[in-house]
Amino acid sequence: MQFSLWLALAGAGVLVSFTPGAGAINTMSNSLTSGFRRSVWGILGQQAALVIHVVIVALGVGVLVASSPVAFNVIRYAGAAYLVYLGIRQFLSKPDLDQEQAAALRNEPAWPMFRRGLWVNLLNPKAIIFFLAFMPQFIRPGQPLLPQYVVLTSTVVVIDILVMWFFFALAAKSFQRFTHNAHGQTILNRIFGLLFVAVGVLLALIH
Fold first, then answer.
1. Which pLDDT score is estimated for 192?
2. Per-residue pLDDT at 103
């Protein structure tokens, strides 16, 4: 990939990563409950979903999903329902000031965080549609395709990890002062719960 084309790819990747969405909300929520360093497991799960989306598009399956209203709607509504479920669960979470239970929450195993991040991004068929429009701008059919897809995927993944971890996860630290009392925890639970539900509803309604 030419350096000028790669710079354009990197710039587009930064803009996309800074666009708030379910991944950003999930990252901030993980950072608040499990800490900045451990929030990376959820971010890695989100990146695994991103790689799967790229592979789907690269193999041409994305064209099938984009052209099949039934397949698209099934995935879209499943993704919306999952986000709404996460939001309701977060909204109804009770404040917990018990130090032992708080420590256990901060030590949540990596796999559940990774899996949650994976499903948050994977159940978003709009990502497939986005990559269908996004990827051809940076792929040259006359050149070997595999190296180009590797460069594109690694660039987008690295940028998204950096933005999610060092912007959204760090931004969540500014809310930590609310976690030391029951009223503050209730406010945060309801804010993030409503955000998850809002993103889920938008995913279901916006075509």
1. 80
2. 54
Predicted TM-score (pTM) of the model is 0.77
Q: Yes or no: say if 106 and 33 are a contact pair by the CB < 8 Å rule.
A: yes
Q: What is the 3-state secondary structure (H, E, C) of the chain?
A: CCHHHHHHHHHHHHHHHHCCCHHHHHHHHHHHHHCCCCCHHHHHHHHHHHHHHHHHHHCCHHHHHHHCHHHHHHHHHHHHHHHHHHHHHHHCCCCCCCHHHHHHHHCCCHHHHHHHHHHHHHCCHHHHHHHHHHHHHHCCCCCCHHHHHHHHHHHHHHHHHHHHHHHHHHHHHHHHHHHHCHHHHHHHHHHHHHHHHHHHHHHHHCC
Buried residues in 123-136 as b, exposed as e (16+ CB within 10 A): bbbbbbbebbebbe
From residue 30, alpha-carbon distances to 47, 53, 204 in Å are 15, 23, 24
- Other Cβ atoms closer than 10 A to 74: 13
CA distance 105 to 101: 6
* Alpha-carbon distances of 105 from 99, 108, 119, 123, rounded to whole Å: 10, 5, 20, 25
Separation of alpha carbons 39 and 181, rounded Å: 22
Q: In the chain, which residues have pLDDT < 50?
A: 99
pLDDT at position 207 is: 52
